[in-house]
Structures are given as C-alpha cells and as structure tokens.
Specification:
Layout: H1 18-42, H2 50-53, E1 57-60, E2 66-70, H3 85-95, H4 107-119, H5 129-137, H6 145-161, H7 164-174, H8 184-192, H9 201-210, H10 214-217, H11 223-242, H12 248-251, H13 273-288, H14 292-297, E3 301-303, H15 308-325, E4 341-344, E5 351-355, H16 380-389
Parallel strand pairs: 1-3
Antiparallel strand pairs: 1-2, 4-5
C-alpha cells in the first residue's frame, strides 16, 4: 500500500487517494458481511423461556366474568381473534407501523428512533415487534451488545419461520403492561375489568401506551404519569390515522381520556375469594384427577357456579348476625366465634355461595368446607322436607321417645 503516498509532499502526502478510500471501505464492508454471515450461521432460535410459557389459573363467576387469576405469573394467553382488532391496530401504530412489511428488523426504524429521541419527540420503538417478541420469549432482558446482536439475528430467523400472525399473538401475550399483568388479556382485566376482545379503540390506545414503560405511563400512579399517558394515548390515536388504521372521523370521537380503574384485586385471594378457590380446587381434584402440581403449572380456565351477588349477600348476612348476636368486647367466648355457611341451588345442588371465614388470607381454615364442625340442627329442615315429600306427615326429628 502506497501510504504515506510517494511523490507527494506536505499535507497531500498524508491524504489517502480515492482508490485507497474506496478500497478501505470495500474491505470494511466485506469484513462486516463476513462477520454477519458467521454470526447468522452460528446463532440458532433457542427454546422458549419457561417464564414466557407460564400462565395463571383463571376462575370465573357463574355469569362468566373473571373472579380471580392465581399463580406466580399473571398471564392468560389468548388467540389473536380474541383480542379487539382496534387494540391490535393501536399496538402496531405505536410500536411498529411496518410490521406486516418488514423482515423482522428495521434499520430505518432504529435510525428514526435515535433521531426522535435526540430531538425529544414521541416515536415508535427502535426495535420491531418481532425483535421485542424475541426478547420476551427467547432471551433475557439484559441491555448488552451481545444480547442485541442475538436479538437481531434471531428476529430475522423467526420472521422467516413463523407467520406474522403467530409473532403478533406471541408478542401481545408476552408483553408487560404493569399492575402485575403479563399479556394483553391480563392487562385488559387489570385496567378495565374486561376481556381483551371487548376493548374499544380508546382503551386499546392506552394499553398500547403502556408498552413504552408501565412504570411511567400507568395514569393512576401519579399526576406526571397521567400527563405522559394522556399525551402518548393521543399520539397513538393520531398515528393510527396517519397509518391508515383509523379514519379522521372516528378519531374525532375519542377526545375523552379512557381513565382505567384505579386498583384491581383480580389476583387477590383475600376476603371470600380464597375460600371459593379452595372449594373449586378440591372439586377439580376429586372429579378430574388433576393434582396440586398440575394446578401449580397454571393455564387452566375454571368456570364455577358461584354467584357474585349471592356471595356478597351471604357475607353481609353473616356480618349482620355477628354484629347482632355477639359482643366480643363484653363476652370473652364471643371472641372465638366462627361462622361457616353455604347456599345451594335446590334444582341441581349447585353451590352458589359460601362463607368460609372473615378473610382467607387471615383465617386459613375454610369453615364452609370442613369435617370438624357438625351440621347439627341446620340439617333438620332437609329431613322434614323429605318426610313431607314422601307422605310422612307424622315424622319427627329429635330423640326417640322411650317405650
């Protein structure tokens, strides 16, 4: 290589020629291509993380609404057609407008994200939906160069192996939305108390805003969060119009911010909920052969006969009776009074309500389902009813008279 250049003097001796510049650039490009090919061939799609596959057990009231979800990870995976299309559109507009066109990665998107971040403007994420799905499902959350390179390569391979619908479904089911909610189904319940299929476009836009960072965009956390969430929500709706996913006329109808409920107890086993879950689990194990280990794995949807209003009504009735007939401050014995109660539908024997104790997280024994407490005189009406039904009008309950 003729460098420093012969036959030149002064500064020109140290300035490379255009041939040298072109040659150096070509060598650098070839080196990069070679390195990429080596990495691409050496990195395979790994197995899914165990955490990405874990789901909660979800228990439902008799009317089909969610009672509670239990498990270490609050996730209920759903099919794409079980998510409101408007919510899907909001996520695509917010995170990756070119999702259906790109190859799983987007250098243009990464560059746009860098420019917008420097200028302080709202933007889509630098990573595509496919890359975020890969990070959620196959890799750790570490922010290292090695992890980013793997994410880039695996995203290319996943885009070739899986359909866009499979990737989008996986992303929506694996993303973190805050409030303990993994996936959009759990998020819809946590923020609005409804399944994902019932989200309207405005609610969907708010959930899409949370993907940028739930700790900063959950509007109920602080006034600053609320302001950020409102701005991001509005930007996403406008972005949907720009992307052709929503008409201007429809956008004009969403001017009021969709305030989420402030707190969700959908994962709490407090109050009577823990007792209801306990009885449901015992029934499942007796009738289906499921074990505690099976239930601990999660992923079950359990529909019960428990009636939400009747459970609350029974709880009020117990409270009224205790207030009327006991006085723990004056009578020491009343401090240890325990109540168990159940309500059964006569037509088919379904248990529609029960009272197991004052709180399943404080009083662990389920008073409504224990062999340690005899039923006593509470069973007399059933005996009398059976006697009357079968013509035994003279039947009596109680001790038999001596001869």
């Amino acid at each position: 290589m003729d460098y420093p250049r012969t036959g030149r003097s002064g500064v020109r001796r140290w300035l490379p020629s255009w041939r040298q510049l072109l040659g150096s650039a070509s060598l650098a490009a070839l080196a990069l291509v070679g390195a990429f090919v080596a990495v691409y061939t050496s990195v395979d799609i790994p197995d899914e993380n165990a955490a990405a596959q874990r789901e909660a057990n979800v228990y439902y009231w008799s009317d089909g609404t969610q009672m509670v979800s239990t498990g270490e990870i609050n996730r209920q995976s759903v099919e794409l057609d079980q998510i409101a299309p408007a919510a899907v559109d909001a996520v695509i507009a917010a995170e990756n407008e070119t999702f259906y066109k790109d190859a799983g990665v987007s250098l243009k998107g990464l560059g746009r994200a860098v420019v917008s971040t420097v200028s302080g403007k709202e933007t889509q994420g630098g990573s595509t939906i496919t890359q975020q799905y890969v990070k959620n499902t196959y890799l750790s959350q570490d922010q290292t160069v090695t992890r980013k390179v793997k994410e880039f390569v695996i995203a290319l391979k996943v885009d070739r192996k899986k359909s866009k619908e499979e990737i989008l479904k996986g992303y929506l089911n694996s993303s973190w939305f805050g409030r303990g909610a993994n996936g959009i189904e759990a998020a819809a319940h946590a923020y609005y108390g409804i399944p994902a299929r019932k989200l309207d476009p405005s609610q969907g836009a708010l959930l899409a805003a949370l993907l940028k960072g739930a700790d900063l965009y959950d509007p109920s956390v602080s006034r600053a969060n609320h302001e950020r969430a409102r701005e991001r929500w509005s930007w996403i709706l406008d972005r949907e119009v720009d992307a052709g996913l929503m008409s201007k006329r429809e956008r004009a109808t969403y001017r009021e911010f969709p305030e989420p409920r402030r707190e969700s107890r959908s994962t709490s086993l407090g109050g009577q909920t823990g007792y209801l879950v306990d009885v449901a689990n015992k029934y499942l194990k007796q009738r289906t052969g499921l074990t505690d280990k099976d239930l601990a794995r999660g992923g079950h949807q359990i529909h019960t006969t428990f009636d939400k209003d009747k459970v609350r009504g029974l709880e009020r009735a117990v409270r009224d009776v205790l207030e009327r007939d006991t006085d723990p401050k004056r009578r020491a014995a009343d401090r240890y009074a325990q109540v168990g109660a159940a309500s059964v539908r006569p037509s088919d024997g379904a248990v529609v309500a029960l009272y197991g104790g004052r709180d399943a997280t404080k009083h662990f024994s389920n008073n409504a389902d224990t062999s340690g407490v005899p039923v006593g005189s509470a069973f007399k009406p059933f005996v009398l009813a059976a006697a009357l039904q079968h013509g035994g009008g003279g039947a009596r309950c109680g001790p038999r008279p001596s001869p």
